[in-house]
Structure formats: C-alpha cells, structure tokens
Write a structure and sequence with these properties.
The chain is mainly alpha-helical. The chain folds into three domains: 46 residues; 130 residues, no CATH class; 218 residues, MetI-like fold, CATH 1.10.3720. 66% of the residues lie in helices and 5% in strands. It is built from 17 helices and three strands. A three-stranded antiparallel beta sheet has the order 2-1-3. Helix 9 packs across helix 16. The chain is elongated and about 95 Å long.
Length: 419
C-alpha cells in the first residue's frame, strides 16, 4: 500500500513538473509573439518614412537672376523661379485657382533644392537644368499608395486636378523615389516632408552625456562608501531604505524637482540638455547605486582577505581588487540606467524639452529636444505623414537602446570572471 501511494505521488509530481514546463514555455512563446507583433507593426508603419518622392522641373535662370546670383545668392527670388519652372510644365494651367492647386504638389521649401543645386554648380547658371525638388507630403502618400485615390474628392487631401498633374509627371518620367536622408540631416519642421531627427538625436546624445558624467562617478563612489566603508548602523540603514525608495519614485517627480530647483530657483537655461541631463542623472543615481552595491557584494570575501593578508590597506583592497572585479556589474547597471533615462519623457516635459525646436544644439546650454519628446510631438500632429515619421523615430530610438544594452552585455562578457 505504501509503495502504491509513493508511486502515485511520484506520478503526480512528474505530471505537475511537465505542466509547469508547458506553462513556462507557453508564456515564453506568447511573450516573444507579442514582442514580434509590436516590432513588426512599428517596422511596417515606418517603411514609408525612409523614402522620399522628388519631382523633376526644368529650371532656366534669366540674365537678371544670374546677375543677382553672382552678387548675392540669398537675394535671388528662388520661390518665383520654382513656380515659373513648374508652370512651364503645365502651359494649360492659367487660372489662379489652378496654379494654386498645382503649387501644392511641391513642398513649400522645394526652392531650397534649386538654390543648393546652383550653389554647388555655378557653372550651369546659363543652362537649362532638370532639378529634382521635394514633393509635398500628400503627393508622396499618393505615390506610395497610402491615400486611396478612388475615394470621392471631398474625402481625400488631394484634388482631382492634382491627381491629373501627378499622372502627367509620372508619364513624363519626372517622378522618382530616393532614400529619405532628410530624416537624419534635417531638424524638426511643421512640414512632414521636411521634418527630420537630427536635432532630437543630437539633443539626446548631449543629454545622455551630461547624465553619464554626473550619475556615474557619484553613483559608484556612493555605492563603494555604503558597501565597503560605511559602518552598519541606523543612519546607513535609513540611507539604504531611501535609496531603494528613490528608485521607485515616478519619473515626473524628478521633473517637478528640476522645475522648482534648477529652473525657478537657480535660473538655469530652460529646454537645455544641461538641465535635462541633471534631472535624468538624479533619476538614474539610485539605479546605479543599487547595481554597483550588488556587484561589490558579489565579490567573494576571500579576495578581500587575501589582499589584507599581504598587507594591503582598505583603500588598496577596494581600488586594486574589489572594484576591478566588480566592474562588469557596475558598467552593466550604469548602461541599463542610462538606457532607461534615454527613453524618458515625463521629467523632460516639466523642464521645457517638449517644445518645438528647429535649431540643432551645439552645446549643452543650447535649447534642444530629445527623441522621446519628438516622438510624442509628432504623434500628436494631424498630418498623416507624421504617423509614419513617428514609427521611424521609434525604430531609431529602439535601435539606440538596443545598442546600449548590447554594449552592456559585451562589457560584462569581456570583464566577467567566474568564481
């Protein structure tokens, strides 16, 4: 009887273990499927943003324009040259309303392409040149088959006349698609066909630089003191509890702190990577301290005892033995903390880094925005093209975070030692 009950219990235990394995594997598969669904949906939505439509127009500058260009290129009426070149392609377009519709197929800043062309090729001033200029965002969406042209005219953003103009240009082989380098070369803009991420990327890098140079040395030194030097008493216990609590504080609280202290009290520059970096450094400090303490605590006591045995002082043990061996964990925790800060939006909202800023920052005190803030602003824009630009910006931000996490893994593997 006892053998029968033991055998039954063993069978039930084996069945429970198998069920647990199935549940665990199912949870893993579901998680991977959700992640792949999310990434694939973002990637598919971002694909249109990586190409840009251009329209070729024949530009012929007259003698007055050439003379004016030679005197001062900035004084040339490039917009007029753009319009007249476009009108020559459609001689039947005469009324003011038709010309207005025709001009809408080009970007409001298409003339910049013409200006740049002649600045690079001044020897071609007196010749007729076919220059490809930026199409408007609506034309771009039509050619990418995102706008349904079979809908009634009042239900789409492109008129029937504009569709005729697009069809003529396509038949005349004046439309081409190319890689949208403006996504990385331009800063933010109200026009989706001109908007880029250069300002947001540089602003993010500057902000992360400030965050790193503040949070890393302070966090590591604080962790070393608490773990290796400070006596274990009620004061250090209170400090440890508060550090753990600070790691769980909502990020927007740090933004309120930055607004009250750094902007209102210290009068530091608003919307600057300097202030954003300090706020994110405060948010990252608890994470770095906790990770560093865990890395220091993982070093076997025998390392310290052996160093003390050969006459090393406490600081020599810490600097020459404990910290180098704990470095993989310290670097991993730091990079993960910085990567988390790179994706934050709420604290930066409170210090003004959510503003529409066209200029690309060159130093940490310039006005700037960051990628998460730019993604948030683009997602709220009404133009449909911004939907695809938002997905592209998300992909680029994810790529930056993935690179940072891969760096953490590589550093850990390079310096890791098994005990």
């Amino acid at each position: 009887m006892t053998d029968f009950n033991t055998s039954k219990r063993l069978k039930n235990r084996y069945k429970a273990e198998k069920r647990f394995k199935v549940y665990s594997m199912s949870a893993l598969i579901i998680g991977i499927m959700i992640l792949l669904t999310l990434l694939s949906s973002i990637t598919i939505s971002a694909i249109p943003a990586f190409t840009q439509t251009s329209i070729g127009v024949d530009v012929q500058m007259d003698d007055d324009d050439i003379q004016q260009f030679q005197d001062d290129p900035n004084e040339v009426s490039w917009r007029s040259i753009q319009k007249s070149s476009l009108y020559e392609l459609f001689p039947d377009v005469e009324s003011r309303s038709q010309k207005k519709e025709l001009n809408k197929i080009l970007s409001t800043a298409a003339y910049i392409k013409i200006k740049d062309f002649y600045l690079k090729n001044p020897k071609l001033l007196d010749k007729k040149n076919t220059i490809y200029v930026t199409a408007s965002d609506d034309v771009d969406l039509v050619l990418k088959k995102i706008i349904d042209v079979t809908l009634p005219e009042n239900m789409r953003t492109v008129s029937d006349d504009q569709l005729k103009y697009i069809s003529f240009l396509s038949e005349d082989d004046r439309i081409k698609k190319q890689i949208s380098w403006k996504l990385f070369q331009n800063s933010d803009s109200r026009e989706p066909e001109l908007a880029g991420l250069k300002g947001g990327i540089i602003g993010t890098l500057l902000t992360m630089f400030v965050t790193l140079i503040i949070s890393f040395p302070i966090g590591v030194l604080a962790a070393i003191y608490l773990e290796e030097i400070a006596p274990k008493n009620r004061i250090t216990d209170i400090i440890e509890v508060n550090i753990n609590n600070l790691a769980a504080v909502p990020s927007i609280v740090y933004g309120l702190l930055g607004l009250a202290v750094f902007l209102n009290y210290l009068s530091m520059p608003r919307s600057a990577p300097l202030v954003g970096g300090i706020v994110l450094a405060l948010m990252t400090l608890p994470v770095i301290i906790i990770a560093t303490r865990a890395a220091l605590a993982s070093i076997p006591p025998s390392i310290r005892e052996a160093a003390y045995g050969v006459g090393a002082s406490q600081m020599q043990v810490i600097i020459h033995h404990v910290v180098p061996l704990a470095l993989p964990g310290i670097l991993t925790g730091t990079i993960i903390g910085i990567a988390r800060a790179a994706g934050e939006t709420a604290p930066l909202l409170m210090i003004g880094m959510m503003a529409f800023i066209v200029d690309v920052p060159s130093k940490i005190t310039d006005k700037a925005t960051v990628l998460p803030a730019q993604i948030y602003m683009w997602a709220n824009n009404p133009e449909r093209s911004f939907e695809y630009l938002t997905s592209a910006a998300i992909l680029i931000l994810l790529l930056i975070l993935i690179i940072m996490n891969l760096l953490a893994i590589l550093l850990r593997r390079k310096y890791e030692r098994r005990w």
